[in-house]
Amino acid sequence: ELQGPGARAGAPAGTGTIAGASYSGMETTTLLIPAVFTYRGTDGADVITVQAITVDGDAGWIEIARTAGPTAQVKLAAGTPAVSSVRILAGAGDDRITVGALPAALLGLAVLGESGADTLTGPDAVTGWTLPGLDDVTAGRLGSQTTFVGFESLAGGSGADTLTGSIPGGETFVLTGSGAGTVGGFAFAGFEALVGAGTADE
After folding, report:
1. Cβ 13 vs Cβ 40: under 8 Å
2. What is the DSSP letter of 103?
3. pLDDT at res. 147
4. Which residues are within 8 A (CB) of 188 and not within 5 positions of it... i.e. 6 or more apart?
5. Which of 99, 102, 77 is nearest to 88 (CA)?
6. Residue 168 phi/psi, 5° resolution?
7. 35-67 CB burial, b ≥16 within 10 A, e <16
8. Low-confidence ranges of the chain (pLDDT < 50)
9. pTM over the 0.85 mark
10. Angstrom distances, CA of residue 61 to CA of 55, 68, 182
């Protein structure tokens, strides 16, 4: 049996490559993966989708797919060295990341827009959002499992989405259409409810 780091547990036995090292003549292989799996985008305009998938009847998997790029399928489980959290680094470029329904086994998803004019889209379900702080350090929240920073535009899914402010002193929501507008330097669309965090919200 061969054990080594990798992106997907249950790699095919026989011959192959793990972490740049070739192997052969192995009846079974077990891939040991870190507790946090990191997926990196490119410096181009990436389109990335993150969602729960079922593999061989097991619903404890998450898939990260990039248009015209690699797809990662990660088995989630508690304990070390199993993956329990996922981090996505979008890279440079005007990226679009969609977070769909996530598996219950996922302890946390951190999405970093990095540079470029990036858009984050939520799942097609009732979802609560909290705006990031203006310091580029305090992360925003999308549902109960996802945190995000570095995005310029936020888009709700087809469910009922609520956008809550994060500035204690108050915020100004400027509406430009039905469920759309700007607040604190962010553009938003597809929200059914807006909630201020302070006492001087407009």
Report:
1. no
2. -
3. 95
4. 153, 154, 155, 156, 163, 180, 181, 182
5. 99
6. -55, -30
7. eebebebeeebbbbbbbbbeeeeeebbbbbbbe
8. 1-13, 17-23, 26-30, 80, 199-202
9. no
10. 7, 22, 35
